[in-house]
Amino acid sequence: MWIPTEHEKYGVVLASFRGTVQHGLPLEIGDTVQLLEKCEGWYRGFVHKNPNAKGIFPCSYIHLKNAHIKNKGQFETVIPTEDSVITEMTSTLRDWGAMWKRLYVKNEGDLFHRLWHVMNEILDLRRQVLVGHLTNDRMKDVKQHITARLDWGNEQLSLDLVPRREFSMVDPDEISVTELFKLMEHRHRKKETPVPANTHHLFVHMKSLMSSNLGEELEVFFHIYDGKENRPLSERFFVRLNKNGVPKSPEKTERQCTLFVDLGSSDLRKDVYIVVHIMRIGRMGAGEKKNLCSIQYRRPFGCAVVSIADLLTADSKDDHLLKVYACTTESEWYQIHENIIRKVNSRYNLSGSNTGLAVSLQLLHGDIEQLRREYMVLFTRGVSITKKLGFSDIIMPGEMRNDLYMTLEKGEFEKGGKSVARNVEITVYVLDIEGQVMKSYVAAGSGEPGGDEYHSFVLYHNNSPRWAEQIKLPIPVDMFRGSHVRFEFRHCSTKDKGEKKLFGYSFVHLMQEDGRTLPDGTHELIIHKCEENANLQDSSRYLKLPFSKANLPGNNQAVKGTKESFWITSFLCSTKLTQNGDMLDLLKWRAHPERINDSLSKLKEIDGSEIVKFLQDTLDTLFGILDESSQRYGLKVFDCLVHIINLLQDSKFQHFKPVMDTYIESHFAGALSYRDLIKVLKWYMDRIIDAEHQDHIQQVLKATEYIFKYIIQSRRLFALATGGQSEEEFRCCVHELFMSIRFFLSQENKITSPITQTQAVFLRTFPAVYGELLKIFTVREVAGFVRETLGSLPATAHAECPLEAVKLHCIAKTVESQLYTNPESRCILLPVVLRLLQAHMQEQRDLVMCARILTSMLSLIRKDDSVTSEPVVSEEVDLIVDSLLVVLMRTILEITNRPQPAGTNMRLQFQDITGEFVACLLALLRQMSDKHYQQLLQAFTSKDDLRDFLLQIFTVFRILIRPEMFPKDWTVMRLVTNNVIITTVLYLSDALRKNFLNEKFDYKVWDSYFYLSVIFINQPCLQLESFSPSKRKRVLEKYGDMRVMMGCEIFSMWQNLGEHKLNFIPAMIGPFLEVTLVPQPDLRNVMIPIFHDMMDWEQRRSGNFKQVEAKLIDKLDSLMSEGKGDETYRELFNSILLKKIERETWRESGISLIATVTRLMERLLDYRDCMKLGEVDGKKIGCTVSLLNFYKTELNKEEMYIRYIHKLYELHLKAQNYTEASYTLLLYDELLEWSERPLREFLNYPMQSEWQRKEYLHLTIVQNFDRGKCWENGIILCRELADQYESYYDYRNLSKMRMMEASLYDKIMDQQRLEPEFFRVGFYGKKFPFFLRNKEFVCRGHDYERLEAFQQRMLNEFPHAIAMQHVNQPDQTIYQAEAQYLQIYAVSPIPESQDVLQRDGVPDNIKSFYKVNHIWRFRYDRPFHKGTKDKENEFKSLWVERTTLTLVQSLPGISRWFEVEKRELVEVSPLENAIEVIENKNLQLRTLIAQCQSRQMQNINPLTMCLNGVIDAAVNGGLARYQEAFFVKDYIVNHPEDGDKIGRLRELMFEQAHILEYGLAVHEKFVPQDMRPLHKKLVDQFHMMKSSLGIQEFPAYVRASPVHFTNGSPRSSCRNSVPNILSPDGSRVVARRSPLTYPAVNRYSSSSLSSQASNEVSNITGQSESSDEVFNMQPSPSTSSLSSNHSASPNVTSSAPSSARGSPQLQDKHKHSRENSCLSSRERPVSAIYPNPLDPAQRATPHQIGDTTLPRSDPNLSAPDKVRPTFSSWSLDSVKEVNNTEFSDTVGKLLCPPVPPRPPYSVSSAKTMRSQSPVPTSRSPQKSSLPPFTPSPTECQSAGLVSNSPVLSGSYSSGISSLSRCSVSEASGTEATTGDHPAHQGPTMPNSVSSGSDELIRRENKTPPPYSVYERTNPRRPVPLPHSLSIPPSVDPPALPPKPHQLRTSSMKLDPASDPRRADGVPHVPRPRPLPRKVSQL
Predict the structure, then answer these.
(1) In this predicted model, what pLDDT tens digit does every residue of 407-416 receive, in sequence order?
(2) Could you report the per-residue pLDDT of 89-143, keeping only the tens digit for each?
(3) Contact 1484, 1646 (CB under 8 A)
(4) Residue 1222, number of CB atoms within 10 A of its CB
(5) CA 20 to 30 Å from 431, out of 198, 610, 937, 1606?
(6) Rounded CA separation 1680/1686 (Å)
(7) Nearest to 1439 by CA among 1425, 1460, 1458, 1459
(8) pTM of the complete model beyond 0.85
(9) How many angstroms separate the CA atoms of 1438 and 1473, rounded?
(10) Do residues 299 and 280 make contact, with C-beta atoms less than 8 angstroms apart?
(11) Cα–Cα distance measured from residue 1257 to residue 1279, given in angstroms and rounded to the nearest whole number
């Protein structure tokens, strides 16, 4: 039975548990679990990281831990009872663990490794804490270390700052907000700004001396030298070096390293140097021989100098190599360092070219204790301390120091009978009172231990030597008295003996008889003659002698007159000894009572350091004098006491205050002193007002604190001694004293009055007195003193008065004092404090201090559980709220609206003060209860006041939740702020409902309320979804989800509004929408219904909700692009609102709005998801296109449309899709006119006129068309711009534009262009984005991109997609699958501009553009067998399934891919297939022959290969297979409807034979000699082929030369209006094109038709076992198969005869073979095998020529007369398309078709064809008066860039010979209709026109955007007209249009006679072009 656990509540998992049992809960080692129930060795509970999953697990897997339970019961919280640092460590390490792994994934290796080390370190420290064996101090250190590491990691990972107090995390609920702010700020400041250290130390490590002339031992002395004052700042550091120049004792680091300590900040300047003196120990002369002398001397070697300022800029610890300099003359040695510093080059030189001193120097900062902690190794290893000369800037009490420094300055010596000067050496001894030499008290410097004596260095032959050598004598204080120093002078001989001969001595006493030490300064000592050492043995003999010339009595002139003298400088640094006689006199006052007065007067002149040395003795002396002679000396003693107290205020001596405090507490014994002190103090107070000079009184007042300390302590001693006598008298005295104080404080004076300054001085020291008064008086009494004293201050003071700031400072100290912490005194003091504070805050003065006071006040008030303090706290809160709440809010508003100061420090202070005021406001609001809020709201007398208050507090709250209010890692503070805000808002919303609804409605207050609520919900710090699970759990447990709470409040308030809701529509739609986009389900459920409410009210008001819709759409775009919203939101929005509007009367329009918004969301979400990807890919572009279309077509949002045009443009540029970029920018260009209308600044466009912007766009588009090699389109825009320049007479720019246009023509002719591949892509499955889902597209491939590469690219873009392996349309299961399926195969384009492609002599460079540009339709063919397959001849049953795909836009356009709009499926019969193949082969042959004739071919090989392929295959049975299949009786009987087609096939076969014959003739003419045998073989085979076909003589209609050029060149034939392709009699017109010749461009080379049928179809089926292999064909550059577009599969090709292996066309040589790896071998597309069919709308319509004299292009016609202008497709109010039937009359009367019409593929089509057999014409075209002019493709096109009209004619060849001409002007004859069909009444004409019109209407209904340049002035799909028109109408334009600007004129009149399209003279009025829709000032 499961029993709830009582104590077993919390545990840690010891081993992982899989949870395989029923109801088992999987556990991982280290998880923490909460236990709910227990049963027989099993627990039931949950893991903390996933509390929703509950289950069972074995008890043995859990280690139980102690825990305490909060909220016991269903919602209990279990907290482990362990050290809070441990708990924090554990949770933090868990959080870090997840983030640490992510760092590895993000490749942030550096932080990854650093964090790893820190985590290991923390784990190690955690173990130490858990073991519990640490001492308290060590535990403290470990915890400090842990928290430092935790904070470091949190900062590095951008986690929250943790507020801590003594290493433990602080619960924000346990402390006041002001305290929390202080803690956060303290930690933040600590993190940000390290406090600059004012104590510095120099670390020196002597490494070596490098020199070539070593060989003697060396001594190196370092010291710090002040170059400004020319004096040393420190004692010397001394290092001994051996003969190799390295330290003598390398193992003793303290002898090589030192720390120059206690350098002040003032010492770190450029003119402070490290000076190094180097001495050698050896012979007198550096080059002397060794045997001359055995005695060693100290001799100068060199000097080095380095500035301390250089170390400040150097790296932390640099090795320096110092240059060593030597003296030019030895006598200058004493000042060599000064010469080096001053750069007196003449007095020193380099010691040697390679001499250098290697030292390591480093500056360290902070006090010495801090250094010991930070550089522990330094101190443990050993380092000597080198002290400063004199005390440091701050003298610490207890510092023991007694160092006497002596400097041997100089000497003056006589020759002593010598011929040369002496070599003088000084030996220094210290002797004690008994004359014994003191051991180890003579030190050359730190680093080496002291010695018994010291030897100076020797200067060679110098009787006036100057040494300037400093020595240190660290003699103990007790040995000073009676000691003296002796200096012995010896001459050092350089003779053989090398002896040192004594010749004199000097001495000096260290202490005078009166106890004073040797004064600091220079002393001239007497040199006493002495030549025997024995004479110095007894010191008492010479000590009686005079030692200093200064101290000689006047009668001793003999000694004074001697020339010999010795100078020393002494300096004592002692904490115990004094050189001051006045000080000694005062201390010995009892010995000389008569000197007391003088001594007291002189005390103020004594140096402060002397006084603090003897502080206790001095104080005892003063109070001793006061006790004995208070009447006589009371005032002077008081003044001395004041002087000493004020001395301790100095920063140098401030650390002696504790010494005085200790003295007062422990040593002070003046029990009677209080009376005198009070008396004198009162006397001074009473004299303040009358005194002229306030300086002395101010000094007295500065000392008030300590005077009161002495008074109180004295009184306590007296009371203790007497049992509390004279208590009343004492109280009376104090009261009188305070009355005097109050009187002088109450005086009002001028600002500059000295009394005002005296008042300020008193107020500064007054708060320090409270603590002392409390020792004797009660809390209430002291509070009374303070209240009355502060209350006596003058109330009305000037703002500039310095007293005001001091008052505030006094208040601050009062609030921070111990007195104020007591609730009793607080009640008394609070009114005074609040009064002063309110006055300052209202005037915005001293805000920093005000913030400090408020913070202190509110830190003391916290919600106390005890009942007793509750009323007190409540009362205090009442007082503060009444006085300060409104003022505080106003202050926050003012300081946040003020501009921030410029300086960093000022700005920090500004931020601090803002934060402090905010914390105060939050603390105050948090303390307010219901009662306080009620009182506050009732206090407002008028509604206006309440309104102002609400507006103010809402504004303040908006400021509080600004992101910049607190640093970004202060989440704790932000959550507390939000908690306070929401609590307050809940209180205030009641006031809002009660006071500002119905007739009292106030829009501004309500708007402010809603605005605040929305900002509150959208704060980043409340978006719990972005938090880690542990953090989210903590926040939810503590505060809940505050967003939901606020959302419910918004909804509740909204419902209360009633009809006032209309005031907030549409203003609040955007903000509320933003709230609903927050990913919190509960919040969304609450807020989304508000939109229904808005729709309802808007419907009531205006009958629709257009405003709601417009606002929703506008805001959605901006919000979703910011990353808000998701798929769940879209579904929720849709479902909630649809459910809400079910019963509304306006349901239909509501559903429409919801659907529109939902669809927009789909696209915006797709767009956002796509934009997250890195590189630009098709998905991004497609998504942008989808959104752009949606904004234009469905929403009609012009500005958004233009914005997305530019986003798409940028994407294209990034992807280098320059053509698409141009088309995209054209969309914007279309919306602009050539007008001077000013446009506002928009996107990156400046403010400019519409003309200027359009010009800029034109130039940009032309530039991009140029980069995209789409030069034909660029030419159109160049012309348009040129016309504009011309109209403005801007000839300079016109010239440039014409040159640009010319350069584009040159590029067309000169540069190579690659023809892209096209691919059909199907996206199936629900996992695709909405704009792709279950749709098919055609995509334009990149340059050189073939099917495999394209497929790989698509799979990379959609990595989860599955490639489908067949081309069949997928079924519904695929459509509905939760997956992604891609179906990809290649398709062939069906060009629209057949006119150019079929025209002879047009270079391939020009044609290549029209083959692949402005393509609407694409084709894919799949061969299959219908019925039984004849194995002998497969062509009998070989059908083709032809799929034609029509796009919504032509390619290329604004995207590389467009959706398929229409799919058409047609089956092509075997016979029609055969006709197509032969037609195409004939076309190819004609082209090659024509190229050969015109010498366009470099060599004849392509023609040779093509002839060989056809003739050789035919011999092997190519055409014979067709004869067998279709010319047999069975076929003709079974297919009577195919009679005409069979006839056509026969004609084509004869035609092919005729072309081959002509081709062989041409071939013979050009064939090289070495290929003659092949030619002969071809001729023989051709005769065999003719005989196999049964051809003896060609019929008349094929006898004409198939390729005849009138003038011998294609260009001349192009110019010749009627090329001669007639038979000799000219009586029969040959229908040169079969009705089944489909207008497509053969983009692949083809070989002969006949090879297809040869040798059992060997070239198709190869050696394959199954004839089905015929379908395994791929597009290929060359092939020998029947296919014109595809080669056989690889195995087929390899098995084909060598003669059949390809006949490539020249222009196709660059193409690569494509393998359709996506499809199975049986179902690979072979669309390109067969030519493109002509759908009914594209069939050529036959007409008769009525008047053959009509010129094809009248040069006199203006451009508008030649073409019809059409409307822009953007314009929504364009006129309807004029019916194209007007052309039927015109054309019928003017023109006659050269070929019969091509019917659809059906039985009826053949019948239709039979009724139109060609008949001879009555008139020969050669005699017509047509001018010899053929318009160029760039001359006669209508006003679009390229034609988008349906195909009118053309063949499947890339070159068109004269045999395939199809325009009337180039036809060999005309075809007259029979009598049954006069004029143009042929049966196909109406069909043709009507089908074209239908097509037009179908396209017009779509109203797509104007994507192609051509469509700028043309309808999207013009009505098809016969291709044979000489001047194509606007619906069938040539390649390029005439000048576009003329087309923009909206009305133009034509002369009826000049219109060639109107035979009846009725003027044809061109359709006006309406103005495009305007972009509103964009």
Answers:
(1) 999 999 887 7
(2) 888 898 898 889 988 888 888 899 999 999 999 999 888 888 878 888 888 888 8
(3) yes
(4) 28
(5) 610
(6) 9
(7) 1425
(8) no
(9) 8
(10) yes
(11) 14
